Amino acid sequence: MKKLKVTKSLVPNLLTLVNLFSGFAAIVYFSQNDFQRGALFILIAALFDMLDGMVARLINAASEFGAELDSLCDVVSFGVAPSFLLYKIYFYQFNEIGILLASFPALAGATRLARFNIQLTNLEDKIYFKGLPIPSGALTIISFSLFTEFYSFGNQAITGYLYFILVILVSFAMVSTAKYDNIPRPSKKSFEQRPVVTIIFILGLVLSIVTLGKLVFAFMMFYIITSTIRQFYYNFKESLEPEEEIDDEIDSEPTPFSD
Fold first, then answer.
1. What distance lies between CA 93 and its chain's CA centroid?
2. How many domains, in total, are found in the chain?
3. Contacts of 132 (CB under 8 A, 6+ apart)
4. Which of 31, 79, 117, 180 is the most buried (most CB within 10 A)?
5. Residue 180 and residue 177: Cα distance in Å, rounded?
6. pLDDT tens by residue, 110-130
7. Are 146 and 213 in contact (CB under 8 A)?
8. What is the Cα–Cα distance from 81 to 226, expressed in whole angstroms?
9. What sign for the dihedral angle of Cα 11, 128, 197, 36?
10. What percentage of residues in the chain have a pLDDT greater than 70?
11. 3-class secondary structure, 128
12. Cα dihedral sign for 160, 163, 167, 170?
């Protein structure tokens, strides 16, 4: 009888499964109309989603299996769970059409992860992602649901329009080819590579904590909008320059949009 072989990849994979469990717990709480506790479990899932990759690279245990498992768990925690929240909070009133609209973030998130997996060339930590990362999309949706509780727009119709806009914006951002910054790592190297991004991230994190989450949605919108504008600027600049010059620049000097 062969002994069960325990490898060092077990630790990051268990952290990944905690991510999945948290996503499942969030769905259960959303089904019971306990939106705050469900949102908390989405945040816990995001924390373990960040930790599993960091631990895997720290102990040199990154693997293709871990990457695939991570994507499967992310679909549930950051795709299905936020979409279910959207349905329970607002889109339930539109019956079958509401089910379809609420599912857009889950569908877009799954598509984005599939694209990410087939384009994955190495298991190193990336500075930029193509398309809005699915955890960021989930955080935007969760923070908006809390944002509407903090601030009253005086008209439910306005809130409804904002939900429609949010679903389209987040879903499109995830399947787009715009480059979005990865979360800066707490290291000297990360700060030297991207000092401005690191400072903005730390500032946003501190303000979000100080305001008890009231500024999380504003920070997420800033992140999405500035990344999109930056991509449009780069595309516009590229369209104005001769192809030869663009090729030379890409070969000689890496840009913020180079992988």
1. 27
2. 1
3. 112, 170, 173, 174, 176, 178, 180, 224, 227
4. 79
5. 9
6. 999 999 888 876 666 677 888
7. yes
8. 26
9. negative
10. 83
11. strand
12. positive
